Every structure is written in C-alpha cells, then in structure tokens.
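Project outcomes to date are best conveyed with an example. Our students and postdoctoral researchers have been running inverse folding experiments weekly, and each run begins with a structure described purely in tokens. The record below, which covers 199 residues, was selected by the lab manager from last quarter's runs and is presented without edits.
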C-alpha cells in the first residue's frame, strides 16, 4: 500500500469487531514502531500491550467508557519514559557491542548526559511525551499498512491507567492506541487546506 493511500484510508475507528489481529501482525507493528525517529536516538518511550479482557474492563471506565478500549484486539498504551539514564546506558552498551571506537562512544555519552542533566523534570516529561506521540503515529500508520485499524486516544485517566497497570513512576501513560478490525464506517475525511497550514 502506498503511503498516501495509508494516509487517506486511515481513520479514528470508534468501534472494533473484537477479532484478534494475530501475533504476527502485532509483532510487525511493534517492530516497525521501534524505528520511530528520536532526538539523539534516546527513544524515551515504552509501550504496554494489553490483550486480556479483564484488564480492558478495568481500564474502560478510566477511558470514559469509550468502546474502542473493550472491543479492540490489542490496546497499546504509549508511555513517556523519563528515565533517560537507563536509555543512555543501553545506547552505550549497544555502541560497544557494535564495535564503535571507545573515543566516539565517550563523546556520544557525554553529549547525551549533558542534554539530559540540563533538563527540568517538566522538560523531561515534555520531551518524552513528544517522542511517545511520534511512536504512536508510527504504530498507527504501520498498522494501517497491514490492514489493521486504530484510534489515537487522549481521553483517559493517565494516573488511573498507571495504577491498574502497575507502572513505575518513570512511565507516564500519554496516548492509547487500540488496534483491531472496524465495526464502523469512516466519516468523510476533512482537513484544513494546505494554505491554512503552510506559510
């Protein structure tokens, strides 16, 4: 499927038919999502995958009883990860394993460390949430490329989700993306004209 076709056919699915998308498609979506661009390759986000009905039922009232949560095949909870230090450590390990010269690694580690240490807690969260949104967008388009529909959702209680899912304080639910096959029809696509957005 051409990317323009993916853009034009994707829509915010309001209700799914409950069918399982299958592990193969789920794995492919998540693998494509891994390649989301991020500043200095820090990748400050994580995604929690939920497929069991019991957990979805607990989350449903925390998402304003929106039916996507309970009718989807899988619910992806994109979390901002404010624990930058653990990601820097992983990047350093990966660079070493790839055989990157120690001098280059040291310079990169210092650059990443300086970038992070000068951030306030609010800036850490904001930066991580921006990346979580980008990762969610990748997942949405990756899903559509495989014939799976979705719906980006911000209408949920982040603290309630974190509590139900037992998330550490460094992982902040930012956007939820249910995946599945639609039980509804898309509305006509409407966007502002290019002249309103580009100047």
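After processing, the design step wrote out the following sequence:
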């Amino acid at each position: 499927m051409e990317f323009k076709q993916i853009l034009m056919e994707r829509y915010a699915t309001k209700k799914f038919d409950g069918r399982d998308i299958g592990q193969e498609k789920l794995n492919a979506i998540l693998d494509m999502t891994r390649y989301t661009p991020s500043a200095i390759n820090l990748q400050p986000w994580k995604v929690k995958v939920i497929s069991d009905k019991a957990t979805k039922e607990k989350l449903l009232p925390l998402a304003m009883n929106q039916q996507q949560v309970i009718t989807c095949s899988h619910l992806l909870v994109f979390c901002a990860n404010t624990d930058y230090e653990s990601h820097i450590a992983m990047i350093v390990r990966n660079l070493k394993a790839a055989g990157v010269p120690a001098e280059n690694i040291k310079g990169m580690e210092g650059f990443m460390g300086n970038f992070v240490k000068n951030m306030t807690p609010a800036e850490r969260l904001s930066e991580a949430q921006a990346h979580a949104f980008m990762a969610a967008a990748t997942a949405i388009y990756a899903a559509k490329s495989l014939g799976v529909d979705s719906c980006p959702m911000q209408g949920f209680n982040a603290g309630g989700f974190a509590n139900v899912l037992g998330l550490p304080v460094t992982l902040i639910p930012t956007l939820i993306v249910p995946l599945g096959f639609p039980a509804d029809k898309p509305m006509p696509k409407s966007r502002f004209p290019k002249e309103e957005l580009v100047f």
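Residues 3-179 form a domain with the NADH Oxidase fold (CATH 3.40.109.10). Residues 80 and 129 are 5 Å apart (CA to CA). The training component of this project remains on track.
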